């Protein structure tokens, strides 16, 4: 990240050649992998523009190659493996609305599946942040994500049905779990 300033990366994300855009998104996807420290470093490098760039790639009003959307969604999936602060940054952005759109409207399973993975990661049970998980699950429910996931339970893809089952179970558990307890015995 030191060798490539964020404005240069931002320029690559908007390059007229889709192949260049794809490489740039894949680079971001890889930078936001493996550890919360990597995701924090990416946020320090790009600031809030990191999520804005993903929002642009997922904006349904823009004509984008489904492959670019898929990579953008997997970048968000990776960001959502980070800390509670990373998950909150995503949850309070426009990304949940865009995830809902791609789960509901995309005919491409390669785009729908990472959108469901985002829900899974956003609602992943964390004993250190029960209230945060519950708040994110509530926001997703209010957006209509639970209803869309219910429809996707009959998707033709077994992988999709399994991921949807996990997402629904986690959302429902987060919405019913008391927020003052970690769920572990004392």
* Mass-distribution shape: globular
Low-confidence segments, given as residue ranges, are 181-186
Q: Name the CATH homologous superfamily.
A: Leucine-rich Repeat Variant
Query: What structural class do you assign from the helix and strand content?
Result: mainly alpha
Strand content: under 5%
Give helix % range.
over 70%
Mean pLDDT: 92
Query: What is the rounded Rg?
Result: 16 Å
Strands, count: 0
Largest sheet: none
Subcellular location: Cytoplasm; Nucleus
Keywords: Cytoplasm, Nucleus, Repeat
Main location: cytoplasm
Protein name: Armadillo-type protein
What layout of secondary structure does this protein have?
Layout lengths: L5 H8 L4 H14 L4 H11 L2 H10 L7 H14 L4 H8 L3 H11 L3 H14 L7 H14 L1 H8 L5 H19 L10
Helix pairs in contact: 2-5, 4-5, 4-7, 5-8, 6-9, 7-8, 8-11, 9-11, 10-11
Give a quick summary of the entry.
The chain has 186 residues and is an all-alpha fold.
Description:
InterPro entries: ARM-like, ARM-type_fold, Armadillo, ARMC8/Vid28. With 186 residues, the chain is mostly helical. It has one domain (6-176): Leucine-rich Repeat Variant (Alpha Horseshoe), CATH 1.25.10. The protein contains eleven helices and no strands. The protein has helices spanning 6-13, 18-31, 36-46, 49-58, 66-79, 84-91, 95-105, 109-122, 130-143, 145-152, 158-176. α4 (49-58) packs parallel to α7 (95-105) and α6 packs parallel to α9 (130-143). The longest helix is centred in the C-terminal third of the chain and has 19 residues, at 158-176.
């Amino acid at each position: 990240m030191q060798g490539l300033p964020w404005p240069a990366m931002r320029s690559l994300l908007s390059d007229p050649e889709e192949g260049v855009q794809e490489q740039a998104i894949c680079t971001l996807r890889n930078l936001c992998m493996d550890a919360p420290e990597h995701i924090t470093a990416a946020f320090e490098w790009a600031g809030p523009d990191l999520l804005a760039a993903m929002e642009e790639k997922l904006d349904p009003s823009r004509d984008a190659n489904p492959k670019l959307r898929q990579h953008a969604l997997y970048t968000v999936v990776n960001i959502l493996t980070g800390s509670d602060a990373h998950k909150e940054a995503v949850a309070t952005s426009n990304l949940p609305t865009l995830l809902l759109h791609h789960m509901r409207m995309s005919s491409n399973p390669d785009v729908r599946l990472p959108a469901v993975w985002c829900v899974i990661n956003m609602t992943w049970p964390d004993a250190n942040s029960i209230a945060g998980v519950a708040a994110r699950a509530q926001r997703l429910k209010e957006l209509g994500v639970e209803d869309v996931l219910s429809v996707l339970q009959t998707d033709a893809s077994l992988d999709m049905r399994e991921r949807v089952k996990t997402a629904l179970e986690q959302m429902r558990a987060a919405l019913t779990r008391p927020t003052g307890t970690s769920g572990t015995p004392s």
